[in-house]
Amino acid sequence: MAAAVILSQTIGLAAQEQSQSSRYDDCMRQANENPAEALNTALLWQESGGGAPARHCEAVSLFNIAEYSEAAARFELIAGDIRVGHGMPKIVGVAQAADANMFASMLSQAAQAWLFAGELDRAHDAASRALSVVDKGSSVHIEILLDRAQIAAADEDFELALEDIEAALLYDSDNLMALMFHAAANRALGRYSDAKKSIDHAFSIDTKNPSILLERANIAYMLGDKKSAQADLLIILRDYPDSHAAPSARMNLERMALKNID
Question: Per-residue pLDDT tens for 192-238?
Fold first, then answer.
């Protein structure tokens, strides 16, 4: 999570005055590897004055044990507090308030958690507040635009999703995630020609990405090119059997085989 990196850097600056940097890194590592245990670690740390770093570790732990609403609420509270320096590490005795990127990244994590909780309106609101404070065209801005597009897509509002995706592509025309989202959204809207242009652009940048191959296969199938679709699906199963795209590739091939029997 982007906010974790930024918060860790901030804590690192204060490490000589408050030795929290390694403790935060350890807690965050634990939050990803053993979140239930990390939750206890974070709560104990808070009792001893761990402040925002300990609270952030708690929120990430909650997210990783699928307590999405609880995590989202905590991310939002932390965002508000760190913006004014509450609970932040001190440098030369002065608490360091979060900058715009850190504040936005924390809100972005809230948006992701609300999305997983199925609270799409709250997710969209958190992402929009995050976008309002960051520099347009920055990497954080582009990342949050794509996060908000995912929220719109989850609500099956693909036109709205495309607005954010295309805004991201204006700043970074070669952004692979944006190109894949653009292809998928256009495919969902039945705009297969536009979808193909985007996925072909993505493939020209990365020819060994199984997710790109899967999307290209989906689009080829919708365009009636079953041979190309099958070829890409077989490549995924042969070369990337352990990828996230492999189960979908296998299922799609099975469906194609059944339709051929019919």
Answer: 999 999 999 999 999 999 999 999 999 999 999 999 999 999 999 99
State pLDDT tens for residues 139-189. Answer: 999 999 999 999 999 999 999 999 999 999 999 999 999 999 999 999 999
54 touches 44 (CB < 8 A): no
What is this structure's pTM? Answer: 0.85
The DSSP secondary structure of the chain, one letter per residue, reads -HHHHHHHHHHHHTTTTSTTHHHHHHHHHHHHH-HHHHHHHHHHHHHTT-HHHHHHHHHHHHHHTT-HHHHHHHHHHHHHHHHTTTT--EETTEE----HHHHHHHHHHHHHHHHHHT-HHHHHHHHHHHHTTSPTTSHHHHHHHHHHHHHHHHTT-HHHHHHHHHHHHHH-TT-HHHHHHHHHHHHHTT-HHHHHHHHHHHHHH-TT-HHHHHHHHHHHHHTT-HHHHHHHHHHHHHH-TTSTTHHHHHHHHHHHHHHHH-
Do residues 164 and 148 make contact, with C-beta atoms less than 8 angstroms apart? yes
pLDDT at 258 over 70: yes
Backbone angles phi, psi at 35, to 5 degrees: -60, -35
